[in-house]
Amino acid sequence: MIRYYFGNKEGLFETMVRETMMPMKKKMDDIFNESDHRNLFEFMRIYYHEMNKVPQFPRLVAQVMHMPPSATQRRLFEKVFTDMGRPDHDLMFGKLQKSGVPA
């Protein structure tokens, strides 16, 4: 079944990470699209709210990030975080630069 739906175990792992992070990503997109000085507070509030739903996830992240950089799980986590975080990162720092904060 794993091979049919996800291709392999790595595909299942990546899908689990993406689906766990997606509700937080959607809410973060909403707050970053609003130009508001409370965005950092909202980001942290959403993070803790979403992580309370899956309390094992932060521990899994810590365990995976302590693996060697060549470990498949770590590479998949980094790929997902980069894919999901890059647009928000660019938007947030773009707004800071427009407001006069040096890079």
Automatic annotation (TrEMBL):
Gene3D superfamilies: Tetracycline Repressor, domain 2. This is Transcriptional regulator TetR family.
